[in-house]
Amino acid sequence: MFGKGLLxxxxxxxxxxxGPNLTEYYPEVKPVLPSRTRSSMVLEPEKCIAxxxxxHACPNQVISLTSEKDEKNKKVLKTYEMNMGRCLLCGxxxxxxxxxxxxxxxxYENAVYHRxxxxxxxxxxxxxxxxxxxxED
Length: 137
Ligand code: SF4
Ligand code: SF4
Known about the structure:
Elements (H helix, E strand, L loop, with lengths): L1 H17 L21 E4 L9 H5 L5 E7 L5 E9 L8 H5 L5 E4 L13 E3 H15 L1
Antiparallel strand pairs: 1-4, 2-3, 3-5
The protein binds iron/sulfur cluster (2 copies).
The site of one iron/sulfur cluster has 13 residues, from α2.
């Protein structure tokens, strides 16, 4: 009985030793995500018309925004925040957005130490992304 179990254990060890490597070398090697992965949200503030449809579409009250009128009496976006601690990544807000300013994306390194850091200033994040993509060019 003991010998049988030992042999079984050894066979598993040998199989693993010479079989395909299952270890992921994250974060040095980034995983290739399935094409339909949804792990984050991105806003293009210049496309946003501050209509608020995304706010009303969200079942979890994740989004809050403020707007103001410009010199031509046109509504412009002033602030746009998302409480990502509550977000289900369901995409109802992106479907409601008439200008495609709000999108789901595949950024997955979103871990933070404090809950307050899950409240994202989407306009600041967009500026940051633009700056980093300019640096890469
Ligand atoms: S993805 Fe869903 S839960 Fe998240 S903000 Fe949009 S509507 Fe709300
Ligand atoms: S639905 Fe789209 S355009 Fe309207 S406020 Fe939300 S992000 Fe902006």
